[in-house]
Amino acid sequence: MALKEGLSLTQKMVVTEKDTAIYHKSGKLEVFATPAMVAFMENTAVACIENDLEKSLDTVGIQIDTKHIKASKLGATITCTAKLVKAEAKKLSFEIVASDEEGVIGSAFHVRYVIDPVKFMSRL
Fold first, then answer.
1. Is 93 within the bounds of a domain?
2. Which part of the chain is the Fluoroacetyl-CoA-specific thioesterase-like domain (predicted)?
3. Is 6 annotated as a binding residue?
4. Which of the two ends of the chain, N or C, has the fewest CB atoms closer than 10 A to its terminal CB?
């Protein structure tokens, strides 16, 4: 496997009504929801390694330790950067930071494992 520590990727999104706490039922405010932020962080980690992962393989997330430290309003642009900080055998560890136009809104430590999707699904 050719995944090298230090790989990183930045993605951007704009907060819409489907990204709010009201929509996710995680609160009553029209602000960027923690579940939406976590999903965007995880998506950014997946995209970070997508081009370097063997095409027959996939990854599954097994851990995400997240801090959501600041609210973002509808229409805010969220920038998320994931960096592969450790690649040991099939275990991949990422540091992730999310920001809006005013600064950092959240951070995470995320672990994914490389899997063979056929074998994985056959065990369910």
1. yes
2. 15-116
3. no
4. C
Q: Taking the complete model, does pTM exceed 0.85, yes or no?
A: yes
Query: Is 30 a member of any domain?
Result: yes
**pLDDT tens profile 48-99:** 999 999 999 999 999 999 999 999 999 999 999 999 999 999 999 999 999 9
Q: What is the pLDDT of residue 1?
A: 56
The structure tokens listed for 116 are: 């063979």
Please tell me which residue in 20, 66, 68, 110 is annotated as part of the active site: 68
Q: Looking at 20, 42, 44, 110, which residue is catalytic?
A: 42
Known binder of ligand: residue 112? Answer: yes
10 in active site: no
Residue 24 known to be catalytic: no
Give the residue among 13, 110, 4, 1 at the shortest CA–CA distance from 60. Answer: 110
